[in-house]
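Hi L.,

You mentioned the student needs an example of a multi-chain input paired with its predicted structure. This one should do, with 214 residues in total across all chains.
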Amino acid sequence: MKIVMLGAPGAGKGTQAKMLADQYAIPHISTGDIFRANIKEGTELGKKAKEFIDAGALVPDELTVDLVMDRIDHEDCKKGYILDGFPRTINQAEKLTEALGVKGGDIDYAVNVDVPDEAIVERMAGRRMCPNCGASYHVVNIPPKKDGICDRCGEELITRKDDQPETVKKRLAVYHEQTRPLYDYYKEKGLVVDVDGTKPMEEVFQAIVSRLGE
Ligand code: AP5
Ligand code: MG
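Structure written out for the whole complex:
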């Protein structure tokens, strides 16, 4: 099963993608996570991506498309995958469609996690991330068992640099301008699954699975 996650920054794409990856035993591929890992390791890609991410802008397609095309060619993607944060521009979506079309296929679903802008800033302000395993928490909605510590690996949680309110507003503007058009792109193909992302995360998850099948 090949799934694309759609939705605003902070809508819960990553949270749901991780649960879906477990459910269907397919890899969760998050371009944001890949960029953050590269920034942490100080790679050339990380250095280039950092200035765009910190400013709330998109990383240029030249740095993004080939990276994802290579990744989905790996052996572990044979049964499918969940793309989280890619595609994010019409150009990226067309490149993905083209690459899959060559093999005679396409994605199966574009899951749109819908959360209004008003709820987003509050979610981002409360988000805490594990810099080691990538787990995501929210201080009020999804708190870790022990304050400030990752349930999964025990690492100290951090706040993402691009979660400051001003940067979040910029990311939302970029989303509406460049990424939201993907909704219509996949709607026309009949692939969109809409879910209400304001519901508790388990409910959102059940809503998605009930539409995709066990
Ligand atoms: P990326 O990491 O993809 O960030 P994003 O799309 O802005 O989305 P987030 O990861 O912030 O949010 P999310 O939807 O995953 O929500 P989460 O599950 O964490 O990208 C970062 C940057 O990298 C971009 O700005 C760009 O610069 C660059 N980039 C990445 N991909 C790119 C591409 N393809 N092209 C160009 N540039 C690219 O949830 C958010 C919070 O809400 C958490 O605290 C969570 O615990 C909480 N929460 C989740 N679900 C619920 C719920 N149901 N109820 C209450 N709280 C919830
Ligand atoms: Mg995410």
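You could point out the following to them. Residues 114 and 197 are 5 Å apart (CA to CA). The pocket of BIS(adenosine)-5'-pentaphosphate (ligand 1) is lined by residues 7, 9-15, 30-32, 35, 52-53, 57-59, 64, 85-86, 88, 92, 123, 126-127, 136-138, 141-142, 162, 171, 197, 199-201, 204 (CB under 6 Å).

Best wishes,
N.
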